[in-house]
Write a structure and sequence with these properties.
alpha+beta; oxidoreductase; ABM_dom; 4-stranded antiparallel sheet; 3 helices; 24% helix; monooxygenase activity; Alpha-Beta Plaits; globular; Heme-degrading_MO
């Protein structure tokens, strides 16, 4: 099993807009081989931002990597950020994890 996470620093006051953006977007993940689940996590807040993480679960690293080269991936990320770039304090930070237990 493989877990793919992206961490986002979202400007304070933009949390609801960020959550709505994720709630309403078409992820194009349903039916992708190896995809098992997704969560959007809301973390702690600092003076200037709130931390969020996207968390997707895959059958294997190979399944995740295959998705990153697929048409579904291109469609899901076609408008990433879009006109809402001001809500992001920098680019997302990717973290990938192999499940060991």
């Amino acid at each position: 099993m493989f877990i793919a996470m992206n961490r986002f620093k979202i400007a304070r006051g933009e949390e609801e807009a960020f959550e709505t953006l994720w709630r309403e977007r078409d992820s194009h993940l349903q039916g992708v081989p190896g995809f098992q689940g997704f969560h959007l996590l809301r973390g702690s807040s600092e003076d200037d931002h709130t931390l969020f993480a996207s968390h997707s679960i895959w059958a294997s690293r190979a399944a995740f990597e295959a998705w990153t080269h697929s048409e579904a991936f291109r469609k899901a990320h076609a408008n990433a950020g879009g006109s809402n770039r001001s809500m992001y304090l920098g680019p997302p930070k990717f973290e990938g994890f192999e499940v060991v237990l």
